[in-house]
Amino acid sequence: MTKMNNIQKLAAMRPLARFSRISVRDLVVTVVPVLLVTALAIVAAYFFVQPAPPKTITIASGPEGSNFRLTAEKYRKILARNGIKLQIIPSEGSLDNLRMLNNPATHVDVGFVQGGVTEGTNVEKLVSLGSVFHVPLMVFYRTAAPVDYISALGGKRLAIGPEGSGTRALALTLLKANGIEPGGTTPLLDLGGEEASQALIEGKIDAAFLMGDSATPPVMRKLLWTPGIRMLSFPQADAYARRYPYLNRLDLPMGAFDFGKNVPAQDIHLIGPTVELVARDTLHPALSDLLIEAAREVHGKATLLQHANEFPAPLEHEFRISDDARRYYTSGKSFLYRSLPFWLASLVDRLLVVVVPVIVLLIPGLKLVPSIYNWRIRSRIYRQYGILIALERSMLAQPSPEERQELLRRLDDIEAEVNRMKMPLSFAEQFYVLRDHIMFVRERYSSADGT
Q: What is the dihedral of CA 279, 285, 291, 294, to 10 degrees?
């Protein structure tokens, strides 16, 4: 009985574990990895998210007053509603627009480009936002008798448009198909728009090739009503459209300009390419949507040469349709941009980059924190039980007196280690159970030793 009391007194004199409401160290070690993984996910997502759309973009249009330029002005008003400023860069026409889009130094984001001008040009970094309108070729001429074929203009003085215009590119293609080439007997003059119109009226040239990329609508209307000047009808329009896939047959009905005076006096067959809204492949997706919306508002109505809702359309010709444009034509704008103002949708869209990792990783991770925290605390107690069990097995192996003393000394070390443990109050019961088991082992083998 005296021996038992001495053992209990010695045990009581050993320092007890330090208890606290919570183990800050264990909590930090548990929570930090969850926060770190979430932070890494946010950083990784940041590299894949689009930056905020720029407030200003630049479009290459055409000469002052041209159809291309007038269209760009309409786009500018529509984009301004969403706080986007559209800078309009004048140009000579489609070919000039294409060159600017392909030249990084020009900082042009988007431009109007008609079909048939990409030969010899690398367009890999350019995409189409869709075809937006037809641009008919109108050939006005002054002759005593009507002309039915371009070949009949051989030897005449022809204005084919300024260098860099789509008008000139198409005129040269059609003239070559009819045996008329630069350097031959037919004078080809770099005149376009108002200059070509005035030269034709004054008799300085015999014919003028005009298109919307370089000529204004008033110029064409003036020529239509000028006595002695005719507009060429293309009876071979279907053949041209089949030979050159980027061309379309466009019919101008009799009387379309004036029912009373029946102007034109008969159906006129025209040919012309489709104009595409071409952009660099780095264009922000949100701006792509806005531009297509603007195109839909400007070009969606019926005209003399197109049906309602015919344009814009994802018709792939010489440029691939961008993924963003294809998505828009298939499913429209995303929910955010459809439901919120543009600036707010753009902000929320980028904030989702932070919210999604938080929802997917942080919230479930924090729910696991209590379980992981409890496991860490229990693991300390279980580790001491493992050592105690191994020690007890050694004692059962009938050690020598010296070995038994060494085992009892190791038992003291275990008890001292347990008493130095810092434990949350919620684990006090398990702590005292462990100490009781240590005491049990000590009493059993101290008695067996006879000490």
A: 160
- Nearest to 17, CA basis, from 422, 449, 334, 451: 422
C-alpha–C-alpha distance, residues 156 and 18, integer Å? 108
Asked if 315 and 274 touch (Cβ cutoff 8 Å), the reply is yes
Q: What is the pLDDT of residue 155?
A: 94
Q: Is the pLDDT of residue 175 over 80?
A: yes
**pLDDT tens digits, residue range 123-147?**
999 999 999 999 999 999 998 888 9
- 215-221 long-range Cβ contacts below 8 angstroms, 24+ apart: 215/66, 215/67, 215/167, 216/65, 216/66, 216/67, 216/70, 217/67, 217/70, 218/65, 219/193, 219/194, 220/138
pTM above 0.85, yes or no: no
- What is the rounded end-to-end Cα distance, in angstroms, of the chain? 12
- H or E stretch including 243? helix 237-243
Buried b / exposed e over 155-177, threshold 16 CB at 10 Å, is: ebbbbbbbebbbbbbbbbbbbee
Residues present in the chain in total? 451
Which of 138, 206, 149, 135 lies closest to 171, judged by CA?
Answer: 138
Question: Which residue in 2, 3, 19, 9 sits closest to 419, CA to CA?
Answer: 19
Instruction: Report the distance separating Cα 317 and Cα 323, nearest Å.
Output: 15
